[in-house]
Amino acid sequence: MDDLLLRGEARAIPRVGELIEGTVISAAKNEVLLDIEGLTIGIVRGKEIYDESGEYSEVNPGDKVSATVLELENENGQMELSFRYAGHQKAWNQLEELRGSQEVTEAKIMDANKGGLMIKVGNVIGFLPVSQLTTEHYPRVDGGDKNKILGILKKYVGQNFRVKVIDLNENEEKLIVSEKAAWEEKQNKSLAKYKLGDVVTGKVTGVVDFGAFIEFDDGLEGLIHISELAWQRIDDPKEVIRVGDTVKAEIISIDDSRVSLSIKKLLMDPWKNIDKKYQVGQKVTGRVLKLNPFGAFVELDQDIHGLIHISELNENRKKKEITEGETYEFYIISIEPKEHRLGLAFEKKVSEKKAKDETPQPEDNQAEPAEKTGAETAAAKEPAKEIETEKTAE
Question: Which domains does the chain show, CATH number per domain?
Fold first, then answer.
């Protein structure tokens, strides 16, 4: 070691754990000798030859390489070195650079569990959570059956996904990547040419409880929420749309890389002309679609659905029980076109019948005024007995 110090007095002496460079003198299966810039001879042997970066899998005499110092001088007076530690340092330094730059990289799928995919970036093992998969690879399973989800994830083993590093901790050897983040970058660039109101044509790639995913323009993807599939109420998107369907939709929102689409925006709103089909007090026939704690949804026709409130059901419970799928006769008690609401009841409201039956009629030889004054309108709403009392008093 003293000779080393004497020979290297004009140079900084490396420290244990430091990464240094050297030139390969000889390379055997279990031993590699390095010339440490004329300072000393270094040796890499045994398990220290393996490295995570893969950079030292094949080295030849004359190659410039880096190695980590394990000992300044071993029993043979050589500097003990490690490619394993050097490779580990380089691999994690490269991952740190990827996280900082948010550059997209390749990750090989090694295995799968119910929470996601085990991946390898370079030679470092990491994890790709299910939540960070793109909509293309996300396991859409009705009811969230974990075994079915695992079955889908297993199909990806051996494939390469394009990902971004989103979390990294060398001390804990934790590497988390996101396929969704890499996809969003591409999505954002392609979306630059689109604006709200544009109409796109796409193919349905997935149908879930809350809507349908549509792929358009070579890889872009948007979501049609269940409320934007049609004007009528829908309980299950599969009732109106299927994977593989080609549809036209309007862009109604662009939030970063998330695109919201609407099919119903391209359809005529059936509630605009509802007064031509339905009026308050009208007797109608409707099929009960679904019972809820607050009432029952009733289909009057393909486009118009109404609601019979729970209070109306309770009021008539003794007279009439209703069942999903069955057809009944109802009376329309309210219509709100702007809110797309229509109220139903089994019977006409008493107040409606009373207002009609008890309104004073004009005498045969008198024409009914074109407009009633406020006092006359109020009098028309009073009970007949009170109206007669007022006439007697006069």
Answer: 2-89 (2.40.50.140), 102-184 (2.40.50.140), 193-266 (2.40.50.140), 274-348 (2.40.50.140)
